[in-house]
Every structure is written in C-alpha cells, then in structure tokens.
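sorry for the late reply, my laptop died twice this morning and i had to redo everyting from scratch. anyway the thing you sent over, i finally got around to it. pasting the sequence first so we're on the same page, its 233 residues, then the predicted structure underneath. double check i copied it right bc i was rushing
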Amino acid sequence: MRLAKYLAHSGVASRRAAAAIVRAGRVRVDGSRELDPAREITMQLVELDGAPLAGPQEVVVYALNKPVGVLSTARDSRRRATVVELVAEEERRLYPVGRLDAQSTGLILLTNDGELANLLTHPRYEVPKTYRATVAGGPVRRAALETLARGVDLDDGRTAPAKVRLVSPEVIELEIHEGRKHQVRRMCEAVGHRVVALERVRFGSLELGDLASGAHRPLSSEELAALRAQARR
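ok and here's the structure:
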C-alpha cells in the first residue's frame, strides 16, 4: 500500500491531503523522514509528527439525514454544529462526503475512507445526486423544466444536462452529477424559481428513504459495494 493511501486509511486525512502531509516532511518511515507519497508500505513503522500510527482502520460509512443549520464539515472554528457531531458514538475520524449548504437537508455520507470519498465526489466519476427543491415563483412550467434538463448558463459556465421531474406544481426533482457550489439553487433561480427548501434524497445508488432528520445508520456491505461499483464505472 502506498504511503498516502496508508495515511488516508489510517484516518489521518483524505489521500490528496495525506500526500501533501508527506511532502511537507511530517512523516517518518522506520525512523527516516519520507517525502514520497508513493512509497510502498508493508510492515514498516510509520510516524506522523513523531507519533506512531496504528495502521489502516476498518472502513466505516454512515448515511445521515442532515438537518437545517448543521454544517457539512468535520469541525468549525466558530463551534457551530457539524454533521460529524451527530455521530457522537464513533471514535474514528470521519469526513463528510457530498457537502450540503447549511440551509439544505437530506442525505450526506460520513466515512473514514479518504479514497472512497474521492471516488464519490470527484467530477470525473460522475456519481449522480438527486435533489428535491421546493420553489417560489408560481407553478413550474414545462419550459423551465426543459431548460433545466438541457443545461443552464451560470456565471461559472453551462451546466451539464440534468434529469428533471415535476413532483408537484412547486416541487422539482433534479438529478445532477456535477458538484458546483449552490448548483441546484442557482439552476432554479436561472429559470425564475427561487429555492425555498432543498433536500438531497439520493446519492448514487443510495436513497435517503425514511431516515429521520438528524439520524444516521451504517451502510451495509451490499450498499457500500454498490456505491463503489457506481463510482468506478
């Protein structure tokens, strides 16, 4: 296993962040400073900032229904509530996968596997995410739905085509595979409908289902395998 992956699976950071940590000279292998994130690790002693690492942890992934006002981050300098704090019994270091803004709700994943987090969120893997947006501006017309489906011109470029379904006159369901900041909100505003409530109901093959607001559950091995397979297609 390469050193950056070893650090990521040990719960230190994502693999990309772990590579930066190695290049910064903070890691020693068998007592010697190691600057190559691709160094192969088998049975060597690995230390970070002088403290030995126990080695790769068992991978854990939780599905969580994020409430309004909770931040999609591991920690906050202003001590606001975070999604990680909602899994209080978990002692392993967790990372949010697929962030939601503070006012949005719904399905978010938490894991200690930096590689999996990258697979599920990197744009090139095109893992779809489905959102349900309650909008203002009157009943949503066919023309607005067709525009959303084709792609919308935003200030950071045109969005990719989306799958769009009208749930009710003022509720739109959108499936997208990009991860731009506030993308769904901006897409809806571009067609004349301000979002007043936004919920993510599906992440790849995983559905939010009847998971209560603020509640979480571990993914089954079958669910985890399905997510990995989808990200690697």
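The chain has a mean pLDDT of 91.
thats about all i looked at so far, will dig more tmrw
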